[in-house]
Amino acid sequence: MKKILILGAGGQLGKELHELAKLTTEIDVVAYDRQALDITDVDAVFRVVKSENPDCVINAAAYTAVDKAESDSENAFLINETGARNVAEACQAESVRLIHVSTDYVFNGQKDSPYNEKDVVDPQNVYGLSKYKGEQAIREVMPNHIILRVSWVFGLYGNNFVKSIIRLARERTELSIVADQLGCPTSTVNIASVILQIVPQICDESFKVKKFGTYHYCDMPETTWFGFASAIVEAVRAVEARAAEAGAVETGKIEVSQPISVKQIIPIMTREYPTPAKRPENSRMDTALIEKVFGIKRAQWRPALDKLIQQIVNNQL
After folding, report:
1. Closest CA to 217 of 124, 299, 302, 111
2. Contact 14, 60 (CB under 8 A)
């Protein structure tokens, strides 16, 4: 049985990973949220990695407030670069494997096709640059690492696009959503599954050193934020319709959860919705390498979205 140490276990991905890992009989898991371990505290990181003695550390701890990072760059770099370096140094010192979660925002978004692992990085915002600097720090410190870049992450925990759209769809009758940015929504459930498939492979003594490095994973198919928002609203309507058929409306349950009121979703251009941080127009990523090396195939995001919507609406009832 392999032991994994999850850092950032209070976050969107970290929580999902912890829940899934607890169900996996082949893995012993211990998890630390930010209150239990601040990865910017190098002494604490070394102490925890040494005392827990895991086979693999999964670093899901990150500063992810993309727009806020523009005015809070010091903290973004402290967590995403210095924190990542601290974790890598501790793993190297204890001969522990490391899986570090990164982002598609390391690219500028100008490529016409999906980005592969060999493409040149060119972050367009502070968040993307801080994550890239974290990648570089890990590469400098230790060879036996996996950097997993993911995109457009959504899930049950934390704040994300899905939850924002549901809230806005309940408050407004009209939504304007950016339609000229391409990407692949990716479920935390699917990312967690990918990570747990990678762990036993890289912990196996037969795993070749040359296979360590950077990989891309995202769900499929590609869409726009407008397309994703439309799918979210459609899924919520379907859940509410089923609840109504089951008599939930009569019992008052749907009233408590505020049925969506949005009547129209309008596609707009990025220039019509300025944000502090510039977003890449193309966030699509090529996942051929992770399939070739680890046998991991892309999952569909729509089934994960439908299940998530069911969970969210039920929790609000």
Report:
1. 299
2. yes
- Which residues lie closer than 8 Å to 229 by C-beta, 6 or more apart? 161, 165, 175, 177, 265
The domain 2-159+187-219+284-299: what is its CATH number?
3.40.50.720
Question: Which token pair is 14?
Answer: 């970290």
Q: pLDDT for 250-274, tens place per residue? A: 544 444 456 889 999 999 999 999 9
Catalytic residue among 127, 132, 215, 217: 127
pLDDT tens figures, 38-63: 999 999 999 999 999 999 999 999 99
> Is 105 labeled as catalytic in the residue annotation?
no
pTM above 0.85, yes or no: yes
Instruction: Reduce the DSSP state of residue 148 to 3 states and report it.
Output: strand
- Which pair of structure tokens corresponds to residue 66? 């993309």
Range list of β-strands (E), the chain: 2-7, 27-32, 56-59, 97-103, 145-150, 153-154, 174-178, 182-183, 186-187, 213-216, 223-224, 264-268
